[in-house]
Amino acid sequence: MSPARGTSRTRSYDPAKTRAAVGAQFAHVRTAVGELTPEQFALPTRLGDWSVRELVGHLSMVVGSVPGNLRRPAPAQAETALLDWPFATAPLASGIDDDTRAVAADEPVELLARTAEQFAEAVPPSFEDRPLPTRVGAMRLADYLVTRCVELVVHTDDLAAATGVTIPYDRQALATTTRLLADALAAKAPGGSVELRVPPFAVVQCVEGPRHTRGTPPNVVETDPLTWIRLATGRTTWAEELAAATVTASGERADIGRSLPVMS
Q1: What are 205's strand-pairing partners?
Q2: How many CB atoms lie within 10 A of CB 107?
Q3: What is the reported pTM?
Q4: What does the pLDDT profile of the chain (264 residues) look like in tens digits?
Q5: Phi (first) and psi of residue 44, to 5 degrees
Q6: Residue 108: is it exposed, middle or buried by C-beta count within 10 angstroms (0-12/13-18/19+)?
Q7: CA-based diameter of the chain, in Å?
Q8: Paired strand residues for 248
C-alpha cells in the first residue's frame, strides 16, 4: 500500500489554472534554453550522467507526455490517485532514462517548440477531464497536469543549477509543486505533532505523536518553497539546510530529516 492510501484529505487544484501553469513554466524553460550556447548544452547536471542536453530532452518529455498519452485509448477509469504519484516514480527511472536519451538526439530549441505546440493543441485552456494512461497507471488528466507542474518546477531548478542561468518560476506552478510535495510528506509521515510551514503556499501537519489543537504548535518546521522542493526531491539534505539556516526547526520532534526525501 502506498503512503497515500488511507489519507482522509486530498487537496483540490483548479484544472484551468494548472493547465495555464504548465504552459507558463514551459515557456520560461523555452526562453532559457533558447539562449544557451553549445558549450552549455554539454555541461553536467546533478542528475547522474545527464548533460544539460539530456535534461532539456526530459523537460520536453514532461510536457510532451500529455498529448502523447491523450492519443492513446482512454482507460475506463483512473486507478492512480494524485497523492500516489510521488511514491510511484522511482521504479520507472531506467525506462525514463532510455526515452530521455532518445528524445535528446533532436535539436533542443526545435524540440521544445514542437512540444509546446502539441501541448497547446491537445489541451486547450478549457478542457474536459478524463482518465489518461500514464507510466504509473491511469490518472485523471487534471491530476496528471498537477504532476507536470511538479516535474517542470523541479527540473527548472536543475537546469538553473547546471547552467547558472536565472529562470523565472510561474507562481501557480511553484505553489502547486510546494503543496503537492507538502501533502506527500503528510501522507508519508502521518500525524499531527509537527507543523510544516512553507509560506506563502502550504501548511501541513505530519509525524506521529501528540496532535496540536490550538495556539503555537510545539514542533514547527519552516522554510521557503524552493528549499522545501529541493529537500522533498533529494536535491539537498536536511543537515545542509539546517546548517545554512534556510530551514528553522523548533521542538523535540521537529527533525523531519528521516522522512526526506519524499520522492527520489
Answers
A1: 195
A2: 10
A3: 0.94
A4: 455 543 446 799 999 999 999 999 999 999 999 999 999 999 999 999 999 999 999 999 999 999 999 999 999 999 999 999 999 998 988 899 999 999 999 999 999 999 999 999 999 999 999 999 999 999 999 999 999 999 999 999 999 999 999 999 999 999 999 999 999 999 999 999 999 999 999 999 999 876 656 666 789 999 999 999 999 999 999 999 999 999 999 998 899 999 999 997
A5: -75, 160
A6: buried
A7: 56
A8: 222
Q: What cell does 119 get?
A: 501541448
Cell numbers at residue 205, please? Answer: 501537519
